[in-house]
Write a structure and sequence with these properties.
- By secondary structure, this protein is of the alpha/beta class.
- The protein has one domain: 3-Layer(aba) Sandwich (Rossmann fold).
- It has helices at about 10-20, 50-55, 75-95, 110, 140-155, 170-175, 200-210, 235-240, 260-265; strands at about 1-5, 25-30, 40-45, 60-65, 100-105, 125, 160-165, 215-220, 245.
- α3 (about 75-95) links the parallel β4 (about 60-65) and β5 (about 100-105).
- α2 crosses α3 and α3 (about 75-95) packs parallel to α5.
């Protein structure tokens, strides 16, 4: 059995559906009711340790998506407290109860999303898992701390943890609004928002992460192959950052500023959707 937290959300619902399509038994949970998921559902609060223990009894793994989703949904203190404490409860209980795998919905926002579009200047591009997480706000920090909790759990137990750092998820309908106007020094856009993620591919990454052959903790960047813009990516980098950013690897055409090479290599994940192909 696989437990899915945050199952009432738009992404959680898709993950549940993908698991059921694979004939995997699912126990879904959220703070809001979802009676239309075609699987067993438990209403509950992940801040309640006893509830989390009941949830995980008999489970093989958990996909932990439950969180306040983004930096603008609540006061920063509320976001940080909720996301960190719920993740700690889930991962600690998973380790204590001997679950094989935790898949954690982290975020590329932890790499450096900022209210000020010019605030985050990367050390190099494209962003990959070796680039340090440099959060500017409590939501991104909560995801960085969540990954650190996963590393601790993987060190001191037999439970392995996969953290998925996906960027802003845009529905297929939302992608019809692409291309966006190109960012400029006068009208900057925080770098991780140059990239986007398709919910169908993000859901598949979560499902694949359940059975990936990894040890300990591993983090993976998840994004679509192209940026949101029609302008060449290298031109946009030059226009917005000058020569201050080192270019590593290939950024041909409108390539994303986020590299998914590691996810493709270790998870067997392939992005299937790209707005430029539609």
């Amino acid at each position: 059995m696989i437990v899915v937290t945050g199952a009432a959300g738009r992404l959680g619902r898709r993950v549940v559906r993908d698991l059921l399509d694979r004939e995997i038994e699912v126990l879904a949970t959220d703070q809001v009711a979802a009676d239309d998921l075609s699987t067993e559902f438990l209403l509950g609060d992940l801040l309640d340790t006893k509830m989390v223990e009941r949830l995980l009894k008999g489970a093989e793994g958990i996909i932990h998506m439950g969180a306040i989703p983004g930096p603008l949904r609540a006061d920063g203190r509320v976001i940080f407290d909720n996301n960190v404490q719920s993740t700690f409860n889930v991962m600690m209980s998973a380790a204590e109860m001997g679950l094989r795998r935790v898949v954690f919905s982290s975020s590329a926002f932890g790499m450096g999303w900022a209210h000020d579009g010019a605030a985050f200047v990367p050390l190099y591009l494209p962003l990959d898992e070796e680039h340090p997480m440099m959060p500017f706000e409590p939501y991104g920090l909560s995801k960085q701390v969540g990954e650190d909790i996963g590393k601790m759990i993987a060190r001191n137990s037999t439970t392995t943890v996969v953290s998925l750092r996906f960027t802003n998820v845009v529905s297929p309908e939302g992608q019809e609004e692409f291309p966006w106007p190109a960012p400029t020094p006068q009208n900057p856009l925080t770098l991780v928002m140059w990239a986007y993620a398709d919910p169908r591919d993000v859901a598949q990454a979560h499902v694949r992460a359940l059975d990936a052959d990894i040890e300990g903790h591993e983090a993976f960047m998840i994004a679509q192959p192209s940026s949101r813009f029609k302008e060449p990516t290298l031109d946009l980098i030059r226009d917005n950052f000058g020569n201050s950013v080192e270019i590593r690897g290939q950024l041909q055409g409108t390539a994303s500023v986020i590299s998914t090479e590691k996810a493709q290599r270790m998870l067997g994940w392939r992005p299937r959707y790209d707005w430029t192909a539609s």
